[in-house]
Design goal:
- By secondary structure, the protein is mainly α.
- It folds into two domains: about 55 residues, no CATH class; about 90 residues, no CATH class.
- It is built from eight helices and no strands.
- The protein is globular.
């Protein structure tokens, strides 16, 4: 097991994930989110410096596809169903990122791709991607009220 694999399975990573999810759920302005997320990640991981930069949709697509090509063969081990789920995840993430830039998402194509995954692919995607948590955090970040704020 590599250091990266050990970290991916570690309590520290789960702590970072929970801290970031909480920040996204409770913070209204993107500038505040950046600062709080960098502080949470940097503090928990012992970083001295952190920075944020935004990339365009084409750069994000290239980054996601590069990661997919580099890591998917080893992770999937020839499992075409896992590869399909990963490829769908990339497409959905690109659509969601495009929404931040007011681009129309290809919902019909994404719906067809999701249906093609079948029940086992749906289960794997919904479990592994934590999509509900991530979409909820993005909606709250860009104006939808959080349950905590709505209750106050």
């Amino acid at each position: 097991m590599t250091d990266v694999q050990r970290f991916a399975d570690s309590r520290e990573l789960r702590g970072v994930e929970h801290a970031v999810a909480r920040i996204l759920a409770e913070t209204d302005r993107p500038v505040e989110v950046y600062a709080a997320v960098l502080e949470a990640i940097g503090g928990l991981l012992g970083w001295e410096l952190g920075a944020v930069w935004e990339v365009g949709a084409d750069d994000l697509r290239l980054q996601l596809e590069t990661v997919l090509r580099r890591h998917l063969p080893a992770a999937a081990g020839g499992d075409r169903r896992l590869a399909s789920v990963a490829e769908f995840s990339v497409e959905l993430n690109l659509a969601l990122a495009g929404g931040l830039h007011r681009r129309a998402a290809p919902w019909a194509r994404l719906s067809t791709s999701f249906l093609a995954l079948g029940p086992s692919g749906w289960k794997r995607y919904l479990r592994d991607s934590r999509i509900a948590e991530r979409v909820g955090a993005r909606l709250r970040l860009f104006g939808a009220p959080s349950r905590a704020r709505a209750a106050a």
